Structure formats: structure tokens, C-alpha cells
Amino acid sequence: MCHFEFKVDSELKHDYLNEKVTATGESDSFILRSVDEYEVTKGKSIYNMHRDELNGMIAMQFNNPSVGAVTKNVSIIRTYIDFCINKNVVTHRENRLATFTVEDAKNLVNQQVLLKKFITREQLKEYQRIIFNEQDKLILELPYIGGRGRTCDGCTSEEIINLRMSDVDEENKMITLTQNDRKTRELEVETSTIELIKDAYNQKIYVENNGEMSNNLRLSKPREIVINRVEDYILRIPSKDKFLKFTSNLITSRMSRMQKYLDSPYLTITTLYQSGMIQSAMDIYKEKCEVDKDDYKNICIRYNYGEDVPEKYWHIVKGLFEQYKELINNTYFK
Question: Which DSSP letter does residue 225 get?
Fold first, then answer.
């Protein structure tokens, strides 16, 4: 399964990974590769390191963009150390990450990465100003205001992909979002969002490379591709011969390109979606100097976070908001 050549406890690491299912093993192998690099520099195995050395490794070897990322990495490392203990290779029989807490994780978050992942409403508008194609502007807009899709396989960005012109109620400023299982929900939106939807629907030509000249000397201008009508779907695949609505893979590809155009490596559907939730909480906080449980639940409902059970997820949105509020308090709240 794993093709990495570990330099410290290689057989032990491969035995650990071989016990995992393929997807988990592949994910864990990247973590253990970083662990292995640190073990080489320290001249000792991870399970023999003291807590300050372990904290140093977590801070140095990983980006740590969020508390969740830190705790996930630590969980993998802690499980690996338990595996080593059970294999009787740890003479002291102690897992020094056993007492690692969420508070410990907060102290190891890379705050610069965390800040770069949060996109304010003003930043979103600036990104949309830079982006050339109406389709791409809308792809940035919809997850930020609450339209995305479920996290199950094949459902990523389903509400964006399934959006039709007939789903737009311009008079009442509402749009209907549809999942692949045909379940629908309504979302109140700004007039500017409706105008973006109409612009994307009416876009007839997609201009590659964000409308800029490429390094291809054979092209005198950026390539232009026709966008065919597909019923009344808003987003359709640019192609001379194809009549297809968007796919999740195409959205991922577009986001990857926009990261480069905007010099924003952390720009993804997920960061847009989370940033929209955080911005919503910030708007509430700025208005009444607090965000209560009902506020967080309403944000969950708007973003369909937790689907029909916002009661179970509102505290996650609270954690996201408080994490960012602490970081940007001096610049946002004046």
C-alpha cells in the first residue's frame, strides 16, 4: 500500500499502515512520512520523544491551518504510538500524546494560514472583480452565501450544479437549491446574487486563462469556447459539441485555476463555505456584540450544515467563529 521509504522504524510503520484500509492507510502514510523526517533530525523514535519535542514536531512538520487539522494529525500519531506500545517496542509503555487536548491544539495552529483561509465579504467582491468569466464569479458566490451540497460521495457542489433559472424567484429574492436526491430548500439572497446568476446563465462564451494572454505563442488571444444551452441550467460545460451541465470535477478544476489567478492557495469551495458562515456570525456580533445559540443554529440552517440536525452542529460554527474572532479582533472589531 505505502511506497514511502521510511528511515526510522520502517518495518514497524509499514506494519501499521498495512493494517489500515486503503484510503486511511494512504492518508496516514503522509503523516508518518513527516514524522519520519523529524525522527531523523532528532535521532530518536517518535514514541521516545518528550512532550515538548512532540509539540515541536507538530508545529514544524505540518501546516496546522485549523484546530481540526491539528487534532486529526495528532490522533493519527497517537494511534501509531499505541500500535508501537502494543508491539512491545516501547520500553517505558507511555504514550506521551495521550493527554493532548483541544486547548493544546489551539496553541499549535498556524495563525497565518488560518487567517489566509478566511475570506471576508470585501475580499470575495475583490476576487470577483478580478475574475473574468461570469461562471467563475458565480462559483465563488454560491458557497459563500450558503449553497454547496452534501459531503457524501457524488454530492459535492450538487446545489451549485443543479441550479436552474426556473429556481430563481427574482421578485421575492429567493432561490431554490436542489440536491441530487431531489430534496430542495429555499435561500433568501441579495439582488446582486440574482444578477450574478442571470449573468452566468446568459454567458455564451467562456474565455480561458481568465481572459489573459498565455505563454502559448501560437495563440494570438485567449481561447474562447462556446457555452451551449442545457435546458435552463445555470452552469453548463463550455464545449462546441457537448450539451452538458457542470460536474463536481469541473468545479474543482475551476477552483484550482482561480487559486492561481488570485494568488490564493487556500481558496476552495470549503473555505468559501466556512468563510460565509464565519462572516454571518461576525455580522451578528458587530450588530449586537454577541452571537447566541439560536444565531448559530440559524447559520447552520441557512448553510444546511448538519442538514436537518443543526442542534448537533451549531457548536462547531461557534468554534470556528471564536477562533477567527480572536485572531482578527484588532482589525475587524474597532
Answer: E
Containing 161, the helix (H) or strand (E) segment is: helix 158-161
For the entire predicted model, the pTM comes to 0.76
**Which strand ranges, in their side-by-side order, compose the sheet holding 184-188?**
168-169, 174-178, 184-188
Distance CA 94, CA 96 (A): 6
Q: Does the pLDDT value for residue 109 go beyond 90? A: no
Neighbours of 150 (CB within 10 A): 17
- Is residue 86 packed enough to be buried (19+ CB in 10 Å), middle (13-18) or exposed (0-12)? exposed
Candidates 146, 143, 137; CA nearest to 174 is: 146
Q: Is the dihedral of CA 101, 107, 112, 115 positive or negative?
A: positive
pLDDT given at position 306? 84
The beta strand positions in the chain, using DSSP E, are: 168-169, 174-178, 184-188, 205-207, 224-226
CB 8 within 8 A of CB 38: no
- Secondary structure (DSSP) of 60-94: HHS---SHHHHHHHHHHHHHHHHHHHHTT--TT--
Residue 245: DSSP 8-state: B
DSSP secondary structure letter of residue 151: S
Q: How far apart are the first and last CA of the chain?
A: 53
* Digit-coded pLDDT (tens) for 253-297: 999 999 999 999 989 999 999 999 999 999 999 999 999 999 999
pLDDT at 334: 45
